[in-house]
Each structure stands twice: as C-alpha cells, then as structure tokens.
What does this fold into?
Amino acid sequence: MAETRKASRFIVPVAVAGVAAATIGLVPALAASGDPDLPDITAQQLIEKIAASDTQTLSGTFKISTDLGLPAFGNLMSGLGGGEGGGSSADPSAKLTELVSGTHTLRVAADGPERQKLTLLDGSDEYSLIHNGDDVWAYDSKSNEVFHEKAPEGAGTPEEKDVPKGKDVPTTPKELADEVLKAAGDTTSITVDGTAKVAGRDAYQLVIKPKQAGSTVASVKIAVDAASGTPLKFTLASVEGGKPVVDAGFTKVDFGKPAASEFTFKAPAGAKVTEGGAEKAAGEEKLPEEFEKGLGDLEKSFGDFGEGMNVIGEGWTTIAKLDTGAPAPKTEEAPKEFQGLLDSLGDKVTGKFGSGTVFKTKLVNALLTDDGKVYVGAVTKDALVDAANAGK
It folds into this structure.
C-alpha cells in the first residue's frame, strides 16, 4: 500500500488536466450544411433571442467530439480508487467522464424540468441516464448494472431543466451558450457571422472571441435556431488550431413532447442495482486505510483551495493562484505508471519565479512551481509564466 500512498501525491497534476474536461461536460457535435436566407439580426438581438428561449420539450440525436490534446489515460486511475470499494459501473459520476475525449453519439429527450433522458450509444452497448420526478436512474447494458438515487431537493427548477439531476455539468448547447454569455463583457467580441443549416433547421451563427491576448480560446461559435432561439450547435476552437476542443450539435431534433414512456424505467431481470447512498457508505467503509491516509496527506499538503486561492486578471485571461505551502512532487519520484503520463502532459519552464512544470491541455493549463505555487487558467503557457514572474 506504500506505492498507493506515494501515487496519491501525483493525482493533482493529472487531475488538473481533467479539470478542462470536467468544465466542458456533455456536448454534442455535428457538421452543418447550407446557408439559409434569413432576415438580418444584430448580435444583441440574437443574444436576447437566446435568453428568451424557453424550450421545455425536445427529443433528438447528437454527437459529441472533444479534443483536449490529452494522451489516452486508459485504466491508469482505475486502480487507485477501485478494488474493494469499486462501486457501480453505472454510476454517472464515473461513466459520463468517457465523453471528455473522442467522438460519441447520444440520444436525448426532455419534458420540462421533471423529466429528462440521456442515452450514450457505444456500439451495441447503451448507457442511459434518466431523471423522472424524484428519481434518477442509470443503466449500463454492458455490465447489466443499475444505479439509483433520489433527485436532490430543488432539482425541478426551470434553470435546471434539460439536465439529468444530481450531476452539475452542462448537457446541452443552450447551457454551454449560457455559460459563455455570462462571461461576455468588455473583454469579449460578439458578432453574427452568417447562417447555417443544423439538423434540418435554419440557424444564425453567433461568434464569440476574446479581445485579450493570452487566452487559449480562439473563438466560440453557437448556431442558434432562427425560430425558437435554442442553441443547436456549439464549437469551441483553441488558439493551437487543429480540431476544435469541442464540436457540438444536434444531428436530429424535434421540439415536440416526448412520450411519457421515454422516462419510465424498470431494472432488467438479473441486473445488479446499487443505491447511491448505500454505495457511498460502502465506499467509505471499504477504502483501504493506507490509501485513505495518502489522500489525507495530499489534502493537508495542498490545503483548502477555496480559502487559499487568489484571482489574477479578468475575463478570458483570469488566472487562479494557489500557494500550497509544500514543494511540488518531482516526476522522477512518481510511480513508473505515472512518469510517462506526467512527462507527456508537462513542459519544464524557468523564470524570475524559479522553475516549475506547465501541465497543458488545449483549453486549461496549469503551472506548478517547484516551491509549491499553482497557477491555473484558460491561458497560454507564456501567460502563466508571466503571472508567476509578476507574483515573485
């Protein structure tokens, strides 16, 4: 178990890369075709149209294509928390992380704030996440396992519609658009760039770009349904070029009311059913003592992120700074299975601040200095180094 405890010190830099994926969440991808002739509209009018949209019902198919520029993690992390207290393979908190890389096809259905369904198609296997009233169900056909938990209090508010409850991630192009528009201000350029055909529907193209130098975001493009104002497609491009970080949109969409049967669920015969609360308790009881101690050491070393964090800059180039008070772990001290991954994610850097490593993705980068300071943001490596130099 000593190796497990040692490995826990290196979870943080690997997890930093995962933060970029977590912030993206579930998003669909689709190539649009055709340029419909639509009445002229200003960016302000289109933003107001999005804000006024109130799509309560829909069903359709979408694809998600995500490229964070990360190497394949494989089963690297599974051994750290698995084993005796491994939990259910149908648990959404673990299953939906598969969407942070590659291309996936999903089906979605929504009927107001109380009923939503998301199905991930993976070859002949399916994974379904269903919110129906007070219940959240998840089913993994590959393992024939079911996960069930009660929807949290307040899950039926209009602001949270279209999301399988209990999972705090954006799941539709509209939610992604809302998150981006919240950050729009003097640091942002917003324009309308023509029209498009998405899932057979006429749409306007809203283009959002940072005005500031140093952001990893080149642009965000949102295709907005001309009739309803519902975002149909979402594309996030990186300054690195190449494939978009996120390319998202419906391939098929219908705004009619789905059948009630879409949201009913009964565990298949022979399926293993895990209750969310019971799983948590079992995990706490069965977590190996030495691994638990390793996590405690990690928490003590890195302190309270909420209390120790400072914010540098604003808008698209905001950087979070944290002083852990402990020297950063050295790559050569990491377990062998971590060394190659850390080297592929990290670039050694030096400056007035001293030396450190930048752990990089196409969206979120993090600088860990050798003296224990952490700088994280959707900014370039140079921007992180400049911030560390200024904070010396």
